[in-house]
Structures are given as C-alpha cells and as structure tokens.
TrEMBL record:
Residues 144-193 form the RNA polymerase sigma factor 70 region 4 type domain. The keyword Iron-sulfur does not apply. Keywords: Sigma factor, Transcription, Transcription regulation. NCBIfam families: PRK08241.1, sigma70-ECF, SigX5. This is Sigma-70 family RNA polymerase sigma factor. It comes from the Bacteria. Interacts transiently with the RNA polymerase catalytic core formed by RpoA, RpoB, RpoC and RpoZ (2 alpha, 1 beta, 1 beta' and 1 omega subunit) to form the RNA polymerase holoenzyme that can initiate transcription. Belongs to the sigma-70 factor family. ECF subfamily. Residues 23-89 form the RNA polymerase sigma-70 region domain. InterPro entries: NTF2-like_dom_sf (IPR032710), RNA_pol_sigma-70-like (IPR039425), RNA_pol_sigma-70_dom (IPR014284), RNA_pol_sigma-G_actinobac (IPR014305), RNA_pol_sigma70_r2 (IPR007627), RNA_pol_sigma70_r4_t2 (IPR013249), RNA_pol_sigma_r2 (IPR013325), RNA_pol_sigma_r3/r4-like (IPR013324). Gene3D superfamilies: 1.10.1740.10, 3.10.450.50, Winged helix-like DNA-binding domain superfamily/Winged helix DNA-binding domain (1.10.10.10).
Amino acid sequence: MTTGDLTARARAGDGDAFRELTQPHRRELLVHCYRMLGSFQDAEDALQDTLVAAWQGLDGFQGRASIRTWLYRIATNRCLNARRAAGRRPVVEWDVPNLEPPEPTRLGEVAWLEPYPDPRHDAVIDIPLGPEARYEQSESISLAFVTALQLLPPRQVAVLVLRDVLGFRADEVADMLDSSLDSVNSALKRARAGLQQRLPPAAEPPPSPGSPTEDAIVARFVRAWESADLDALVALLTDDVFVSMPPLPFEYEGRDVVARLCAAIFRAGRRFDLVPTRANGQPAFGAYLRGSDGISHGAGVYVLALTGDRIRCMTRFDNGVLPSFGLPRSLPSR
C-alpha cells in the first residue's frame, strides 16, 4: 500500500493505517528527540507528543514534503518547547552515607542527562542520511556529543542536528522551523563554533564495539571495580580521565582526583556486582551494591568512553535509569 493510500485511510480515522504510516520512523524520531533533550524519559514523552500531534493534525499534511520530513518538523518543535520549559530534572545533593567525596574539579550544568539504551538505537544506526550530514551516527549519539548539545541554545541545537547530523538541506530546515534561510545559516555557524568549544579534545579513536580490544578493556575494568583493586583501575585511566554523575553535579577531571574519588568509594566498603549492557554506542554496566542480606541492590548505570586501550570517561547515572535497560532493581550477590 502506498504512502498516499495509508494517509487517506489515516485521515478517515484508521488508526492501523496511521501506525503503519509512522512506524518506520518512530525509532529514529526517538533518537532525534534524545539528542535534542539529553534525557531518554523526556525523549519518549516528546515522541508520544509528536505522534499525537501528527494524528490530530494529519489533515494539515499536504504532501509537499515526505511524511518523514513532516514528522521531524513536529518532533523538533515539540522538543524546542520542552527545552524552553522550566521543569528540567533538578540537581540533587550527595547523599551516600559514610562516604565523603573529594572536592570536585567543577560542577556540571546538565543535571537532566540520561543514557540511551543501545537496543533502542541499533535499528536506526544505519538510517539513510542527507548528503550534507557531517557526523557519523555513532559519534552523534555519544554522551560527549549529546552533553555538548545541551549547553547550546535550543534553536541552535535544532539547526545543527537537522543539518549536520541528519543532513537535511538548509531550505528544509528553514521550513521546519518557520524561519528564513539566512537565520538558519547564521544559527548553524554559531552552533558549530559553540559545539567545538564544548566537545572534548580529539583523541585516539575508541576500539570497535565488540572487538577484542574493547572486550579486554571491559574485562579489566570489571575485575578491578568488582574487586576494589584501585591500582588496576587507575592503570586503565587516561591522564585526563573525566568522571561525572548526573543528576549529581560533581565532575572530576584528571587521573589523580579520579583515583581519590574511587579510593574513597572503596574505603567506605562499597562493593559492586556489574552487569554488562551498552548505552550511547559505548560499553555500560548496571551497578549493584552488595548488601549484607545476600542481595545486590541496583545503584545505577556506568557508561565508559574509551580511547585506544584506556578509559577516557566514566559517567555514573542513578538507579532510576535501570528499567530503561531492562535491568532489575536487585539481584542475588555473587
């Protein structure tokens, strides 16, 4: 059945036709909303808002652009509204008992950042992009890239993602945003400059996902973390390693201060079991704190960024993100 036939049936109130019309685009739209918002929960909400708006506004679809472009227009504007809203995820205070962290290097600004579960991303990693796309799909879903986007003004984020990540033409983006071509080009220029200031310096590329090199680094990290072997852990870190833990604002940069943070965790007697998963195209783990009752309780999700054969970054998220990965709240201690 053609897109025109499905559209006509959907306009007549056929919900199945609408689902068939939009289903091929839902996962890529979810990734788009995630890039815009930096929060998986917010992205899911924005996608649902997009689909409701598309269903209700289907009579306004004139067919001058593709259904995909029309959906991106709706999704982008829903995300812009969400970015402008005041109710983003708040910063929380350190509340780990019997553990005094070292002084952070600085305080982070993106308290609402959440990881993106890879099983949701696999289906869209190879979506066809426009000829003007500048970023690889894997790079543009990384935590470093998504975090940098959150620090740009909302409209600049929209223009950069639509142009440089997805490869839409400038005139298409101007139409999506009800803007002029000059305004889009100006916003893109400012967004590119702002993004480069906020991305980490270039480094040796990470090993390929699932490669022997990645597997070896991951295995060494698991052994060191589960056994609280500080020396083995520090040996895995780059000199400029970076640790963050949203929604906590504390950020640590440099091997020495990160070593002091990990030493404080281990000295407090906190021991973990790690369950492997993936997030944002990167190795990740569900972290479970071992309890005296023989149960390990979900403490959060760790996401690693690798460079060469070392760990360049570790981001710790709280246990509220575990369900997004299909991970349990607790499990028997090993």
